[in-house]
Write a structure and sequence with these properties.
Length: 219
């Protein structure tokens, strides 16, 4: 597919080509890229969560994270008093993390490819659930051994405000609204860009949440 790198008007008769925004060198928001697969992805999330429940990790400093997380794939991201790391087993059950659903692998690879990253083979998928009070402060994803591979991040459920900065924590940030079906891909010169989630949009009477799937090559 062809990327609409500058967010300019695209041919709206071509429904197979979603619009995309360039966030920076090697970093793109693929608008609506996963739109047609949201129902199937949600069912696969529920299957993963049935095997490895969502939980609130403790930060190394001992604070409970507001985002609830679990993993699927060969390795999963873990945080506790000992620090951040990837591990092959769920510390809650001592079982290996559930395998990555085929729908997840195919979507992640297709999104990476659309952003120019060939042969992306994720071995880790974080499943993140954001309720209305959840946020993720500005951070880098840098616990992965292979920083040559991109990050692919898929949004489902409630819209969120994503914060996109630079490679230094003090760099200027911009706010990007992520709607369900949007996929963000970042790698290359943008691989270590600071980013975060300011919050999700919704009303407190609704039981809705945001899910995010984050794919990496971790080891
Ligand atoms: C997002 N998530 O939810 C972006 N990073 O759109 C992240 O940047 C992220 O959810 C590390 C761990 C969990 C995350
Ligand atoms: Fe992150």
């Amino acid at each position: 597919m062809t990327l609409d790198l500058f967010g300019s008007a695209h041919d709206d008769t071509d429904h197979d080509t979603p619009a995309s925004d360039a966030l920076g060198p090697g970093a793109f928001v693929l608008r609506g890229f996963a739109q047609s697969q949201l129902t199937a992805l949600q069912a696969d999330i529920e299957a993963v969560v049935a095997q490895a429940p969502l939980r609130h990790w403790l930060t190394p400093g001992g604070k409970r994270m507001s985002v609830a997380m679990t993993n699927c794939g060969d390795v999963g991201w873990i945080s506790d008093r000992q620090g951040y790391r990837y591990g092959t087993h769920d510390p809650l059950s001592q079982h290996p993390w559930p395998s990555m659903p085929a729908s997840f692998v195919a979507l992640a690879r297709r999104a990476a490819d659309a952003a120019g990253y060939r042969d992306f083979a994720p071995d880790a998928c974080l499943v993140n659930r954001y309720s209305l009070d959840a946020r993720l402060t500005l951070h880098q994803d840098r616990d992965e051994r292979d920083l040559g591979a991109p990050i692919v991040s898929v949004s489902l459920g409630l819209p969120a405000t994503f914060l996109w900065g630079g490679v230094h924590r003090s760099d200027r940030t911009r706010r990007v609204r992520l709607a369900p079906g949007d996929v963000v891909v970042w790698g290359g010169p943008s691989r270590l860009v600071y980013h975060g989630i300011v919050g999700v949009e919704g009303s407190f009477d609704a039981q809705a949440v945001r899910y995010n799937l984050t794919f990496r090559r971790a080891r």
